[in-house]
């Protein structure tokens, strides 16, 4: 019982460490480099998965393996006490009104980047002058409960948590089809790690060029198609076709999970990014638990499990269209920024040849100027005619000075 409790505590600590590192990396990057930094961290994660079996072979015993992993985590824990190695996010400090700590963090980042604060542009009149003039307001923290009272933020979180859950849970439907072709455990383990690296590489190449929402939609559609084909035609397909569909389904489902988490980190505001992203990652972990649960049940009810997740994958295609696009945009800071995000059109409308204006822009401009001049002439004539019809006595009254001393303007 004690060992089980310690294992649960270790899992919770590792999940919190992964979440905090993910958010810190994201908030320290500018929009063009956010995806690349997150995907490079994903490659390091895959490298750790590939090195773990070799470390297990060297240690031979699980106690030695646990000690080696704990030693690595202890080295990582030392970075927490060194702000230069693991700084606090200035974005979060400023969003929560911790201006003094945010100012120190920005100065540390500027000095680390080699920016001279003695220059005229970075003097006190320009750099952080607004922060210093605000005084010292009280910090304002936000909780996850505030997300439930929003509309757009809650909708985006629910959709992305749903897609992350599907991407993690449907992987068991594909890995089970690989069991007859991959009898050795080590080969299947390395294949899953290699497919995860391929999914990271695919996202690196496509997401910054096309956008977050179209690639997530494409990966979800391909995952659903592969799942439906295996669900309906497994007994009619050749073995190599089943193997290819299973491999592609695993790769695309992993891409769906990774991109859902990354997409959520960009659309959630800074004040609740950690809490909201933790909720979405929890949904992903719940989906991963479907595999071990099915193994405990000796794969009883696997057909129903496959039908449910394939249906969810098709349903998520419709919900992804409701998401905003975060490509090339800054991270939202407050709840108001998160609520102001709007869904762009899925396809860009292109003007066809038969929709071109009959007049050229230059002639249209001349016509507009002539029309404005005609309106001006008409208004002037009306004003002059009304002036002529006004009796001289009334006209003199209109020109008498007001109590303020200025003569009234003639109507």
Automatic annotation (TrEMBL):
<feature type="region of interest" description="Disordered">
    <location>
        <begin position="331"/>
        <end position="411"/>
    </location>
</feature>
<protein>
    <submittedName>
        <fullName>Solute carrier family 22 member 31</fullName>
    </submittedName>
</protein>
<dbReference type="GO" id="GO:0022857">
    <property type="term" value="F:transmembrane transporter activity"/>
</dbReference>
<feature type="transmembrane region" description="Helical">
    <location>
        <begin position="271"/>
        <end position="290"/>
    </location>
</feature>
<keyword id="KW-0812">Transmembrane</keyword>
<dbReference type="Pfam" id="PF00083">
    <property type="entry name" value="Sugar_tr"/>
</dbReference>
<feature type="transmembrane region" description="Helical">
    <location>
        <begin position="240"/>
        <end position="264"/>
    </location>
</feature>
<keyword id="KW-0472">Membrane</keyword>
<feature type="transmembrane region" description="Helical">
    <location>
        <begin position="302"/>
        <end position="323"/>
    </location>
</feature>
<feature type="domain" description="Major facilitator superfamily (MFS) profile">
    <location>
        <begin position="1"/>
        <end position="328"/>
    </location>
</feature>
<feature type="transmembrane region" description="Helical">
    <location>
        <begin position="187"/>
        <end position="208"/>
    </location>
</feature>
<dbReference type="GO" id="GO:0016020">
    <property type="term" value="C:membrane"/>
</dbReference>
<keyword id="KW-1133">Transmembrane helix</keyword>
<dbReference type="InterPro" id="IPR020846">
    <property type="entry name" value="MFS_dom"/>
</dbReference>
<feature type="transmembrane region" description="Helical">
    <location>
        <begin position="35"/>
        <end position="52"/>
    </location>
</feature>
<dbReference type="InterPro" id="IPR005828">
    <property type="entry name" value="MFS_sugar_transport-like"/>
</dbReference>
<feature type="compositionally biased region" description="Basic and acidic residues">
    <location>
        <begin position="331"/>
        <end position="342"/>
    </location>
</feature>
<dbReference type="InterPro" id="IPR036259">
    <property type="entry name" value="MFS_trans_sf"/>
</dbReference>
<feature type="transmembrane region" description="Helical">
    <location>
        <begin position="215"/>
        <end position="234"/>
    </location>
</feature>
